[in-house]
Design brief:
With 228 residues, the protein is mainly beta. It has a single domain, classed as YmcC-like fold (Beta Barrel). 8% of the residues lie in helices and 61% in strands. It contains two helices and 14 strands. A hairpin with a 3-residue loop joins strand 12 and strand 13 (204-212). The relative contact order is 0.20.
Length: 228
């Protein structure tokens, strides 16, 4: 349960990282060919894994700019764990990330022989971030029919902009907005946690800290590479 939850959290956290700016999106890369890397660390600072992102397509759908994002997750030894892809839409007011990005492909593979349905609400990041701004919840619900019905629910709630800070990572020093959120996951057992993110204009998320239900640091991640 804990490992599945961690992987789901990882996908949610890093769907809004980048290092390029489009006219449509102020905080998210939309240019085809852009790639970047996030390195995950344990609370003690040891590398626990790496996520490599790349934008493989940019197109117009229903008057919105849409990109396809491919993600590769590797372990601390550099061995590939999984690959996934999802869409990000931009309306000019901000971005909307496909709620299916909140589902880990490793988890889906466990249920591939069963019928399942995934519904939810997308993760939104507006262009007009400011301290005090409250952001809408993002949700994902998966119903699996295994003879008996299993319900999996993930909710990111209490999303808000709490501060402006300067932060330094291996990729540079950035002036950031600080966003916080609470994670609520229910999969036979309930799991809660929270996160703190530093997001810079034209760059995206440059740092992330994850906490358990008691507020103790469990892991952190940083932007470590960017290629355009």
């Amino acid at each position: 349960m804990k490992s599945i939850c961690t992987l789901i959290i990882t996908l949610i956290i890093f769907t809004f990282s980048g290092h390029a700016q489009s006219e449509c999106s102020k905080y998210y890369p939309m240019e085809e060919g852009t790639s970047f890397q996030i390195t995950n660390y344990s609370k003690k600072g040891k590398i626990s894994g790496v996520l490599d992102y790349s934008i493989t397509d940019n197109r117009i759908e229903d008057e919105n700019e849409v990109v396809s994002m491919t993600t590769k997750m590797s372990d601390k030894k550099g061995e590939l764990i999984m690959e996934s892809s999802y869409n990000i839409s931009c309306t000019g007011k901000g971005i909307s990330i496909d709620f299916k990005s909140m589902v880990n492909p490793q988890m889906l593979s466990q249920f591939e022989q069963f019928d399942y349905e995934i519904t939810g609400t997308n993760l939104e990041i507006p262009n007009d971030l400011s301290v005090g701004l409250e952001l809408p919840d993002a949700t994902m619900k998966m119903v699996v029919n295994m003879g008996m019905v299993m319900n999996i629910r993930v909710t990111l709630k209490d999303r808000k902009v709490v501060a402006e800070e300067s932060v330094t990572t291996p990729s540079g020093t950035y002036d950031c907005y600080v966003l916080t959120s609470t994670l609520d996951m229910d999969m036979m057992a309930k799991v809660e946690g929270s996160s703190k993110q530093w997001i810079a204009e034209g760059v995206g998320m440059v740092k992330q800290e994850s906490y358990d239900a008691n507020g103790s640091l469990t892991a952190y991640s940083e932007l470590t590479e960017f290629k355009k």
